[in-house]
């Protein structure tokens, strides 16, 4: 877990360094210089503009680019979901190892780490799989923010509206929709079975709503569309309804229905069915 945090912080720091935070409100064009502008921001702006010309509005252009990005990341997201399922399956054995090696001395903890990694390897669990899609999406998300902000600062570009939402301005309604969609995605995914991740089920939606009420609606639209794709992915791969059926079958009420009724004896000594 510490390695994940260090890796995430390092990527964020590197991304912000490349982003050139002082340029977020500057106009953008194909002549803009710098690695971040040439390889992240301008390609996103050009692609959004291409689909805007093809589909008619910047809103539809943003949706098209979002779908393309999420489809490109889909193999990683599927791998993350499957790894999370396997992680849940090995939780009982992992708890046994934790009880076996509960001593905190260095030798015991080293043995625990070795057996834990062997357990993960045998069951095809990759602890870093859940972090990789986030790491890859981070520069894309920041690049999307810069692209939208700089398009909004470019006089020749008018983002217009999508439905009732002006894309250049924040929207509380769209922010709430994005937050609710994020909650549903987490509720139907592996987070609900992992006590360590359950806090994210409530923290992430609130965070997205907070960002959504101050950032342009174009970026919030990216979150909404991305979460719709994630929800479909969870329904296909994780199948949350199957888990509910298992949970209901495990309840005492459900178990009692399966029990065979014992015959009740009458006063005459007979049996009453």
Automatic annotation (TrEMBL):
Required for the insertion and/or proper folding and/or complex formation of integral membrane proteins into the membrane. Involved in integration of membrane proteins that insert both dependently and independently of the Sec translocase complex, as well as at least some lipoproteins. The keyword Transport applies. It comes from the Bacteria. It is found in: Cell membrane. This is Membrane protein insertase YidC. It is a multi-pass membrane protein. Belongs to the OXA1/ALB3/YidC family. Type 2 subfamily. The chain crosses the membrane at residues 54-78, 125-148, 160-185, 197-215. Keywords: Cell membrane, Chaperone, Lipoprotein, Membrane, Palmitate, Protein transport, Signal, Transmembrane, Transmembrane helix, Transport. HAMAP family: YidC_type2. Residues 254-273 are annotated as: Disordered. NCBIfam families: yidC_oxa1_cterm. Residues 58-239 form the Membrane insertase YidC/Oxa/ALB C-terminal domain. CDD domains: 5TM_YidC_Alb3. PROSITE patterns: PROKAR_LIPOPROTEIN.
């Amino acid at each position: 877990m510490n390695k994940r945090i260090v890796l995430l912080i390092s990527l964020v720091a590197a991304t912000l360094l490349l982003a050139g935070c002082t340029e977020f409100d500057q106009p953008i064009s194909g002549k803009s210089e710098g690695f971040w502008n040439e390889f992240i921001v301008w390609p996103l702006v050009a692609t959004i503009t291409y689909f805007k010309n093809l589909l008619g509005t910047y809103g539809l252009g943003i949706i098209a680019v979002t779908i393309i990005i999420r489809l490109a990341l889909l193999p990683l997201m599927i791998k993350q979901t499957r790894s999370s399922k396997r992680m849940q399956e090995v939780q009982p054995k992992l708890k046994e190892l934790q009880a076996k090696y509960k001593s905190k001395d260095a030798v015991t903890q080293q043995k625990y780490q070795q057996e834990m990694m062997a357990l993960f390897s045998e069951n095809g669990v990759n602890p870093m799989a859940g972090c990789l899609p986030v790491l890859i999406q981070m520069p894309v998300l920041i690049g999307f923010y810069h692209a939208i902000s700089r398009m909004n600062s470019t006089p020749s570009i008018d983002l217009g509206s999508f439905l009732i939402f002006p894309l250049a301005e924040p929207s509380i309604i769209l922010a709430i929709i994005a937050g609710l969609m994020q909650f549903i995605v987490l509720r139907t995914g592996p987070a609900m079975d992992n006590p360590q991740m359950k806090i994210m089920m409530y923290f992430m939606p609130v965070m997205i709503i907070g960002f959504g009420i101050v950032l342009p609606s174009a970026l919030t639209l990216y979150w909404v569309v991305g979460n719709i794709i994630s929800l479909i992915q969870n329904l296909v791969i994780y199948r949350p309804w199957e888990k509910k059926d298992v949970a209901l079958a495990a309840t005492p009420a459900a178990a009692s229905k399966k029990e065979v009724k014992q015959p009740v004896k009458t006063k005459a000594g007979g049996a009453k069915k």
